[in-house]
Amino acid sequence: MRHCFLLQVRPDRLDEYRERHRRVWPEMLAALRDSGWRNYSLHLRGDGLLVGYVETDDLAAAQEAMARTDVNARWQAEMAPFFTGLDGRRPDEGFLVLEEVFHLEDQLSRSESDA
C-alpha cells in the first residue's frame, strides 16, 4: 500500500529541518525499517509544505510499531517544534493522509489484463 501525507514545517526552520534529515539517527532508520516503513521519502516546498510518501502493508500498524519505540519518542519530541498545526499531537500523529486517486502501474496492469 502506498500512502502520501502532508505536514507544515515552520518557514523560519526550513534550513534546520533539512539539516536534521541529512543525518537521521541510525537507530531511527532501523526502527522505521523494522516497523515496516518502505520506500519512505519526504519532499519539502519552499513555504514549508511537507509531502511524505511511504509504502507499508498497514499504515496504522506501522505507526503503532514506531510509537512503541523509545527512539521514535525522542525523535518526535525533537522534531515537534519544527511544525505548525499539530494541536498538541506529535508530528507522526498529526499528518494528513491523502487519498490516492491514480497510480500509473495499477491502471496499466488493469488495462493489460482487460486486453
UniProtKB/TrEMBL annotation:
<dbReference type="Pfam" id="PF05336">
    <property type="entry name" value="rhaM"/>
</dbReference>
<dbReference type="InterPro" id="IPR011008">
    <property type="entry name" value="Dimeric_a/b-barrel"/>
</dbReference>
<protein>
    <submittedName>
        <fullName>L-rhamnose mutarotase</fullName>
    </submittedName>
</protein>
<dbReference type="InterPro" id="IPR008000">
    <property type="entry name" value="Rham/fucose_mutarotase"/>
</dbReference>
